[in-house]
Write a structure and sequence with these properties.
heterodimer, A: about 290 residues, alpha+beta, B: about 675 residues, alpha/beta, five-stranded mixed sheet, about 35% helix, about 15% strand, globular, binds iron/sulfur cluster
Chain lengths: ~290, ~675
């Protein structure tokens, strides 16, 4: 059971969402309001444990009186605002953004991408066979995790998780500019030579599978990764007194990766290297 | 926070360059020799002050200026000194086009291939240069050349800028600054006060005078502007930058110089930009005195009544911006002057800063006073070495004379100004990207709200105004709001500066009252015989046909005609110009300059350029499908991009298709 800390009472803001009068606590985003109203607005770069960077722009909605569309994930609801989530204009931008992303990166391991591409009738192929792609080779430079930036949509989540928002290690940052922008260590060093402490919190937040456990990466390559067949067990890490919650993902009686519940009020899904990667002793049966 | 640094060591020159900016390292924790004492305390956590992060960009400049590129050791040393994570500093260093993290020669030749220069033959210069020096990016003769976006020298296109890394000149030549040819006798020499920070007069370089001795470390830092440029002049300059010819004075860019009707340009070419006395004897600092008499609220009222709106492109009422900033309870308040003029075809701010630097300083002092700021920043384009020197000199002398500092004009108001140099990123002209850049972050725009008046530089209330906007405050205070508003139209008051370039006989900066027509402006500049089109408002603007020249040059008039004044770009193209190539250059510009933060712009600008490449020689049905594709992508860029760059990246192309029928 995870405890939900009580928040001080907040005033309510009332605004119009798709024609309905809606009241949300002050400070809520339009996305919060949509989700509590049961509306499905697609998001890619938004993450439940991080301050939204609003970089992907798939969640755009129409705010009356505004020249441009607004990102639902980070725009706060204001009293008297009139918001429409499913207009022609908003749907058009979402479709094009999906096309732009899918034509330049590999979204095969991004949850729900295929579903949204279908829903919005996006046709990533229409930019032609020569359309520029990110074209990165997977970076396999350590035993614990793989960085496959061909799948990276530059959502900045791993950077925020490694840096100021959680880990404070600052091992990875955004480098370069424009289409050449990449997530990178200092001087593009290999991970073991960088400041990385292998907490794996970046993997935890990556929405596309660009960052993954070496086990998962290898099994996917071998065609043996079978998510529906996996079980998940949440237990307590036994290494130290912090006692973080860990969720063991098990396939064929082997731990294949370790995550942590995001709604845990202490860890918010973050772990250290031991809790995240130090599970071999569990399955050492000799 | 426990930062991990690399093991790479800086060279002596790199260390010296950084220490010259930041002072010697105080302890082993910041890169000094480690002493026993250092081992008795740890630097980290709260004591590792993060508040020096804003020195990151200046520190990267220091290394780049000295060595020509930023090595791993140098970057690591900068990080230790400032407590910045190396990965983050690497992300910042790789954001800017003027920095390199790979070894390169000390001399870098930037050859402009942007709109105005392309219209005036930059392609030929580049192909000649390729023959003589090799392909762009390949070092030859201790130099390397590269293609560059607009250098802001469009009136003298095609243009090039040579930057040589090296030690600072030990004793810069103390020469008189020449004025416009023959118009006024050179009256002043650089004052001895603050002589060691006085700028070298770069027009005088090579023309006699004591050339500084070369220190043992090699090259002396210098810059040379070559415009108009020829390949042979560029090759000579690459061999011996110090021998390049003098650059014409700023006044040469003002064809109307001396015309008594000029307001903003009236001093340019007629007074010595290095002389504070000249400035004062031509009415300088009367506006500031009036400001003190009116008080901050009075100044804001005057600016509101004058109807001044921002000249940077967005046309927001300046008085309202100031009022909103002044009203914020949070403090301190900041003033930022946006002098990162990078819109292709724009060079008015450069001419203002080079020709009349004290005017900007006085105007900023007034603005700072009005909004309750005690610190102002000039965020200056990295490619403007002469403006940097002139402003630097003007700041020093204003400080010496009590016009800046703890007690401005004895009025008990403290105000000072710092210049921050950009490093080659058009996006840093976006008002919130400026904040990130000054703070030592990547120059990525922030999403709004919150707006700068609430949370701007360092998260504090900030007013951002561009150079031309600020300089307008002087005539408002000198003659009063009513007199100012009597010029121009009802909603566009005052005068406007236009940057006329391309195929005209007298390119340069023109100042006209709002409401003059495009035809009147072109008549002044000498239009080509067979006009094909005029690009108004720059790469983010729109094209105007030869039969539309009566459009009034006002914010409302251009808007009604479906185009924009933008920052005042008037690029004139005759029918020798191949429009599809111009559009390709525009698309290439946006693709190059996108910060890369948001998807519609990062990928959309690439797709736009690809489509334009496909149809460059096609018309009609053969182009239709790609045009439809661009419309769809363009709409999403306009609607869903975070900032103005992505939102306007499709404007000019769209207007060329719809108004000029390029691919018909
Ligand atoms: S690696 Fe993953 S988390 Fe990091 S920016 Fe790319 S997609 Fe986002
Ligand atoms: S994950 Fe790390 S910090 Fe958390 S309990 Fe395990 S060892 Fe301790
Ligand atoms: S629109 Fe372009 S320049 Fe602006 S934030 Fe997005 S990617 Fe960056
Ligand atoms: S300097 Fe070349 S376009 Fe301006």
């Amino acid at each position: 059971m995870t405890a939900v800390p009580l928040q001080p009472p907040r005033r309510l803001v009332s605004f119009t969402l798709d024609g309905e009068e809606t009241r949300v606590p002050e400070g809520s985003t339009i996305l919060d309001a949509c989700r509590s109203a049961g509306k499905d607005v697609p998001t890619l770069c938004q993450g439940d444990t991080l301050t939204p960077k609003n970089a992907c722009r798939v969640c755009v909605v129409e705010v009356e009186g505004a020249r441009t569309l607004a990102p639902a994930c980070s725009r706060r609801a204001e009293p008297g605002m009139t918001v429409r989530t499913d207009t022609e204009r908003a749907r058009h931008s979402r479709k094009v953004v999906l096309e732009l992303l899918a034509s330049s990166t590999d979204l095969s391991t991004t949850p729900r991408a295929a579903e949204w591409i279908k829903e919005y009738e996006a046709k990533p192929d229409r930019f032609g066979a020569d359309a520029a792609r990110v074209d990165e080779q997977p970076k396999i430079d350590n035993d614990l995790y793989v960085r496959d930036y061909d799948k990276c949509i530059l959502c900045y989540k791993c950077v925020d998780a490694c840096g100021e928002q959680w880990q404070n290690t600052f091992a990875i940052a955004v480098a370069g500019r424009g289409f050449d922008t990449r997530i990178s260590t200092e001087h593009d060093a290999a991970l073991p030579d960088s400041a990385c402490v292998f907490c794996g919190n970046c993997i935890e937040v990556c929405p596309t599978g660009a960052l993954s456990f070496s086990t998962e990466f290898g099994m996917r390559a071998a065609g043996t990764w079978d998510e529906p067949a996996q079980t998940r067990t949440t237990t307590v890490c036994a290494y130290c007194g912090v006692g973080c919650n860990v969720t063991l993902h098990v396939q064929d009686n082997e731990i294949v990766k370790v995550t942590s519940p995001h709604d845990n009020p202490v860890t918010h899904g973050n772990l250290c290297i031991k809790g995240r990667f130090g599970y071999q002793h569990v399955q050492n049966r000799d | 926070m426990d930062l991990r640094y690399t093991d790479a060591a800086p060279s002596d020159a790199e260390r010296e360059a950084v220490d010259a900016l930041l002072g010697p390292p105080p302890s082993g924790w910041e890169g000094a020799e480690r002493t026993d004492e250092d081992l008795r305390w740890a630097r980290g956590g709260a004591s590792a002050a993060k508040d020096r992060r804003d020195q990151l960009l200046p520190a990267l400049h220091a290394v780049n200026d000295r060595v020509g590129w930023i090595s791993e050791g140098a970057l690591d040393y900068v990080c230790r000194r400032l407590t910045v994570a190396p990965a983050e500093a690497y992300g910042v260093a790789t954001f800017y086009a003027m920095f390199s993290v790979r070894p390169r020669p000390a001399k870098v030749l930037h050859v402009c291939t942007d709109l105005a220069c392309a219209a005036r033959g930059s392609a030929a210069v580049c192909s000649d240069l390729t023959e003589r020096l090799g392909a762009p990016g390949t070092p030859a003769e201790g130099a390397v050349w590269q293609e560059s976006p607009c250098l802001g020298l469009c009136e003298r296109a095609p243009a090039a800028l040579l930057l040589q890394a090296g030690a600072e000149p030990a004793n810069p030549p103390q020469a008189t600054l020449p004025l416009t040819a023959g118009e006024n006798p050179p009256s002043a020499t650089l004052p001895p006060a603050g002589a060691n920070s006085a700028p070298p007069a770069i027009e005088e370089r090579g023309s006699g005078g004591g050339a500084p001795e070369e220190p043992a470390t090699g090259a002396i830092r210098c810059s040379a502007v070559l415009a108009p440029a020829t390949a042979s002049a560029l090759v000579t300059a690459a061999r011996a930058p110090e021998s390049t010819l003098a650059e014409p004075p700023a006044g040469a860019a003002v064809p109307q110089a001396g015309d008594p009707a000029l307001v903003l340009l009236r001093r340019i070419g007629t007074v010595d930009p290095a002389s504070l006395d000249d400035y004062r004897s031509t009415g300088g600092y009367t506006a500031l005195r009036r400001a003190f008499a009116l008080g901050p609220a009075g100044v804001i009222r005057e600016v509101l009544d004058a109807g001044l709106v921002g000249r940077g492109g967005a046309a927001f009422p300046t008085g309202r911006k100031w009022q909103a900033t002044a009203q914020q309870a949070d403090g301190p308040h900041y003033l930022v002057c946006n002098a990162d003029e990078s819109e292709p075809g724009t060079f008015k701010d450069r001419v203002l800063m080079e020709g009349d630097p004290y005017a900007l300083i006085e105007a900023m002092t007034i603005a700072g006073y009005a909004i309750g700021a005690h610190q102002g920043y000039i965020y200056l384009r990295g490619e403007y070495p002469r403006a940097y020197e002139r402003l630097g000199h003007a700041l020093t002398s204003a400080r010496t004379r009590g016009l800046l500092g703890p007690d401005v004009l004895g009025q008990g108001y403290a105000f000072d100004i710092e210049i921050r140099r950009g490093a080659g990123a058009y996006i840093c002209g976006e008002e919130t990207a400026i904040f990130n850049s000054i703070e030592g972050q990547r120059g990525e725009p922030r999403s709004k709200p919150p707006f700068p008046v609430e949370k701007g530089l360092f998260g504090k209330p900030t007013a951002v105004n561009n150079v031309e906007t600020l300089v307008n405050v002087l005539p408002i205070l000198e003659h009063g709001a009513a007199a100012y508003a009597a010029t121009g139209t009802e909603t566009s008051t005052g005068t406007k500066l236009f940057c006329v370039s391309g195929q005209v006989s007298r390119p340069g900066i023109y100042e006209l009252p709002f409401g003059a027509s495009l035809r009147e402006l072109l008549d002044l500049a000498g239009p080509p015989g067979r006009l094909r089109a005029v690009l108004l408002g720059g790469a983010a603007g729109g094209f105007v046909r030869p039969d539309e020249l009566d459009v009034p040059l006002t914010f409302e008039g251009t808007r009604a005609a479906g185009t924009t004044l933008g920052s005042g770009v008037v690029l004139v193209l005759d029918d020798s110009v191949e429009l599809p190539r111009v559009l390709l250059r525009i698309a290439e510009f946006f693709r190059d300059e996108s910060c890369g933060q948001c998807v519609p712009c990062r990928v959309g600008t690439v797709r736009q350029e690809e489509a334009l490449h496909r149809i460059v020689d096609r018309t009609g049905a053969a182009a239709a499908q790609d045009i439809a594709l661009m419309r769809e992508v363009g709409q999403a860029m306009r609607d869903a991009s975070i900032c103005g760059l992505g939102q306007t990246a499709w404007n000019a192309v769209e207007s060329a298709i719809d108004r000029l029928g390029v691919y018909k």
